[in-house]
TrEMBL record:
It catalyses: ATP + protein L-histidine = ADP + protein N-phospho-L-histidine. It comes from the Bacteria. This is histidine kinase. Residues 170-376 form the Histidine kinase domain. It holds the Pfam family HATPase_c. GO terms for molecular function: ATP binding; phosphorelay sensor kinase activity. It is an enzyme of class 2 (transferase). Coiled coil: none annotated. Its EC number is 2.7.13.3. PANTHER family: PEROXIDE STRESS-ACTIVATED HISTIDINE KINASE MAK3, SENSOR HISTIDINE KINASE. Keywords: ATP-binding, Kinase, Nucleotide-binding, Phosphoprotein, Transferase, Two-component regulatory system. InterPro entries: HATPase_C_sf, HATPase_dom, His_kinase_dom, HisK_dim/P_dom, HisK_dim/P_sf, Histidine_kinase_N, Sig_transdc_His_kin-like_C. The keyword Nucleotide-binding applies. It comes from Halalkalibacter alkaliphilus.
Amino acid sequence: MSLNPDLTNVVPEAIIDFLEKNESNFITMWQEQTIQDQADIHKEKVKENGYLMYALIKNTLLDTVTMDDVKHLAYKVAKERVEANINIGDFVYNVNIGRSILIKFVLQAGVNSNQLSIIVDKINTKFDQFCYHAVSQYTEIKNSELEEKKLFINQTHKDKLAILGQMSSSFVHEFRNPLTSIIGFNKLLRTEYPTLKYLDIIELELDQLKFRITQFLHTSKMATIESPKEIFILSDVLDEILSFLYPSIVDSDVLIFTDTDAKINIEAHKDEIKQVFLNVLFNSIDAVMQRQKPREIHLRCFIEDERVIIEVSNNGPMIPLDVQETIFEPFYTTKELGTGIGLFVCRKIIEKHSGELTCSSDEQKTTFRISLPFNKTHA
């Protein structure tokens, strides 16, 4: 049965008088039931907004409210909730508490059922509109803030990388030339005095220093000149690297276990791939040094799903789950004297070779897994 057309827009003056007389009671009852954070910087405005919403509903019943009025109040409250950094769920809960209390008040006003239905419908509609616009505006502001933070973070990373590039160029220029001279003179000494002690150790230390400098070189614009890709046996390169690292392995008292397929070859920039393996193995040695013996590193190389897989595992401390991806970010390091660029450069090199570098870690072991394309032509 439809409502009497003559009553559809009629709100008796008695209900308005009733609401005006009970305004303070409504605000008091509402505040007692709302969720309020003492850290809210706008907590004093919550009561004020309650009065404004109450007035909005009274004017709604008098048909003197426009949609702009609703949006104005909704946007004001949304902005304050964002600034207060309050959970939007708490805000929605408080709005609906106000709705429930207001309808209970209306039910006590003594209006007939037809008029009551019209009044409750108007109240619900206005609360729904207010809540929708407030939450929408809140979400829009929050999203805008997130975008600004993302842009800031991205720009900060770019700025840091640009500074690092400038530092790397200067670093390489200042250190590489004298280092090359020292390496050359060391080779002359080996030729003239083949039995002279410690020349092998000096050469290994110089090579490691050269490797560290090369790390910085790959982060600068100077790393634009590349050697061509070549096809090489993977196990030969790994054996060469282990031989190079032998002093560090012995000094750290680390046990190295290898399981590599001597038939596997890849096509890549050999020096860059060597840099990745060196860096990952250096990190593994540093990791196992944090635990008691036995200190173990396991190196595996195999074919899986037509990909070359290299796994370097160590029994050092577990890397927390939230850090396992962060360690590949530039400038992130857990080492006291670390630069935070080693693994970042490694991942960039592997990705440039259409590969993938990942990390997994638990209480038993930490594994760095490198996946590269399998060279079927020369298999």
